[in-house]
Amino acid sequence: MINSFNTEIAKEVGVNAAVIFYNISFWIEKNACDNTNLYDNNYWACVSIKDLSEQFEYLTVGQIRTAVKKLIDSNLVIEGHYNYNKLDRRKWYAISEIAFDKYNIPILQKINTTLITYENDII
């Protein structure tokens, strides 16, 4: 498996957090393209620490928790709770406006703006 990350984000929060940020960004972009997981004007990725630990076998659960906490504490990622089942402990993550503005995140640049433009165009 090949992992990618933004080096500027890695300078701020570390390589582990930057790799996880890129993964969350990927799922958000996919959800935006599929027009799913749109809540409160953001597209979200729903993922658990266990899901991430299975994907990133070279990171410990503790490293993943620390990386996610760094992303949230640095306001690069916001956390939400949109599970229908209260026993479902997965968390929901979206890219913050700060991350879009500060790092010029390429994923569907400010996804909502793009979608609003297309919705207003009549084909």
Q: What fold name stands as the CATH topology?
A: Arc Repressor Mutant, subunit A
- Under the CATH scheme, the architecture is Orthogonal Bundle
Order of the strands making up the biggest sheet: 3-5-4
Structurally, the number of domains stands at 1
Q: At the first level of CATH, what is the class?
A: Mainly Alpha
Task: Please state the average pLDDT score.
Answer: 85
Q: Which outline best applies?
A: globular
Provide an overview of this structure.
The protein has one domain (7-120): Arc Repressor Mutant, subunit A (Orthogonal Bundle). 52% of the residues lie in helices and 13% in strands. The protein is built from six helices and five strands. The protein has helices at 7-13, 15-34, 49-55, 61-73, 97-103, 111-120, and strands at 38-39, 42-43, 45-47, 77-80, 91-95. Strands 3-5-4 form a three-stranded antiparallel beta sheet. Strand 1 and strand 2 (42-43) form a beta hairpin.
